[in-house]
Amino acid sequence: MALADILATIRGEAGQEARRRLAASSARADEVLAQAQALAAQSRAEMEADAESEAAGLRTRELDRARLRVQRTEQEARETIYQAAHAQVRAALELSRSGEDYPRLFRALLQEAQRALPDAAVVRIDPRDAGLAEGISIETTLHSWGGAELVAADGRLVRNTLEERLRRAEPELRRLAARALVES
Fold first, then answer.
1. d(CA 57, CA 117)
2. Which domain holds residue 168?
3. For 36-66, what is each residue's pLDDT tens digit?
């Protein structure tokens, strides 16, 4: 074989090797490109999911804040309604003594207290009610809008005054105020 033939064969083999390597490199480049595109798509999907999750969290937090503001507003409205109702009831009770029915109201409060503490030794009343109470030892040392305080010999005490009745009625007044808010 002549040198020219050997060189032609080497060139042919080198060309084939170059084409084979070029094809392998091209295939590897296509594979790397496909992997990069898949990785980019996955990264994009994860970023979108993260962004959606963050947006959902933000929406949830904003919604929670709005709900809290509504609850506070409702609570303030209930308290305002309660305070207004309480003030009206208090004003009416403070003026009870000046009403025509007060003697009957006083006797009813006293009798109720006597039923609760039948063995009372002392009845305490407001000095303005001195003409309305009779019976066991009466002390005019109580300062109230009306009613009586009874004390047994062993120290048990029953306080049945308008102020005490208002204090005990507070939970019901609060329920009424809440109901008024719901109905309005």
1. 62
2. 95-183
3. 777 777 878 888 887 788 888 888 898 889 8
